[in-house]
Amino acid sequence: MPPPESARIRTLRRLGHRWARAAREQARRAVTAIGSTHVYLFIAAPARLAMMLGHRNLMPPTTIYEQIRPGYAPTLTVS
């Protein structure tokens, strides 16, 4: 059985969820305003936060890129 989560971990998890919801809403509004049919997302954040952005995907197909020096490469497309 895993050890119980500390209050600090629970707080960080809640903050991560709030950030993801706010970022997703901002992105959705921008996509709607310009009528985009595909989103290309370059994100500098932990993979877990990037996955939370896509939870309950309400956007057009989205391609997520990760940094692979010296540039970026597509990692995942969610439709």
Structural class: alpha+beta
Query: Tally the helices: what do you get?
Result: 2
Tell me the total number of β-strands.
3
Q: Going across the major beta sheet, what is the strand order?
A: 1-2-3
Question: Stretches where pLDDT falls below 50 for ≥5 residues?
Answer: none
Largest sheet, strands/sense/barrel: 3 strands, mixed
Q: What is the overall pLDDT average?
A: 82
- Residues in β-strands, percent: 15-25%
Backbone shape: globular
N- to C-terminal distance: 36 Å
Alpha carbon gyration radius: 15 Å
Order of helices and strands: HEHEE
Specify the helix fraction band.
40-55%
Structure characterization notes:
The protein has helices at residues 7-34, 47-54, and strands spanning 39-42, 62-68, 71-78. The longest helix is centred in the first third of the chain and has 28 residues, at 7-34. It is α+β, with helices and mostly antiparallel strands and 79 residues long. It has 2 helices and 3 strands.
Identify the notable features of this structure and list them briefly.
globular; 79 residues; three-stranded mixed sheet
